[in-house]
Amino acid sequence: MERSEAIDILAEGRGDAISVATMQSASPWYEAGQSDGDHVDASACMGSASSLGLGLAIARPDRKVMVLDGDGSLLMQLGSLVSIAESSPANFYHFVFANGLNQSTGNQPVPGQGKFDWTALALASGYRHAMKIEAAEDLIEQLPQILELEGPVLIDLTIAREETPPRFPGISMAGQVAKLKQRLAGH
Amino acid sequence: MTTGAEPVAAGVDAQLIVDEILNLGVTHIIVVPDTFQRTLIAKLTERDSPKLVRVCTEDEAMGVNAGLYMGGQRPMMLIQNNGIYASINTMKAIALDAKVPTFIMVGQFLRDVTKRVEDNRVRAVRLLEPTLDTWGVPHYRLEGPNDLGVFREAYDRAQSDLGPACVLVGAPTV
Hints:
Chain A is α/β, with parallel strands linked by helices. Helices cover 40% and strands 20% of the residues of chain A. Chain A has a single domain, classed as Rossmann fold (3-Layer(aba) Sandwich). In chain B, helix 1 packs across helix 2 (38-45) and helix 3 (58-70) runs parallel beside helix 5. In chain B, strands 2-1-3-4-6-5 form a 6-stranded parallel beta sheet, with helices on both faces.
């Protein structure tokens, strides 16, 4: 599926979930109006989206946390799969935008492209559920049920290669951190 | 003046450190294993609170700390000196650039306690403070029981600066 399709579907199904986005999902998530609410980007921290999401999920067990990760990003902190399973937050939903590429640095292939399996990695790490979704219509159909599962859940989204230049929203993470902390203190 | 093999740094009773951490109101301790703080980790493991969050790397610890902070908790990290070197980019991006209070206890793994930190042969020990200075990260030495006041000082510094601050554990806790 196209990244834009996945973004639109996740935005539609998000509800009141706290979100974390990174790299090439950050700008479209922002353009979909999803950065205005309870949201933070993982900027320039080489794979920290999953860890930020884990901290939020532990801190706020009353709220769902959606992490919009990248395959290249998650590979940089692959051990976080085990750390997430160790804490096992029931409210943790991990969407991996997997195009097999480090798109933000010019579409270089990720290590092991095509040789490893995200769902197998997640389940072997101790996630409660993991599944691969290749088509937008399947994501539309399955997302409501996915968000009712007990986490941690990993969804491997098959994303098409994009040739457009990498984009970044240019929003200060410090501002987002302060705003999200303030918002979460209020509700 | 120190001569011969006379210790420069003395191990602090782990229970005294637990008491300091409790006084700070810490809710979660994100732990990556450290030899110098082994008895402290064991003591913390026996308790229900603060909650221990075990992670694989110091990079992850920085992210989890930030998430907990945004979610209204009062987290801290417990790592070793090599972990600072391993996670400098994440400390730069999250603790410094994103302005997240990040209070870190750092064990000076392999420190020879009969020598001043500056005179230690091991680079990981000797270069830790210069590395933190390069990044503008405040640090405080815990060289013995008389230094317990550094916990409050470092924790408050992290909160007021909205950034990292480290307590450097100079001898194995007992």
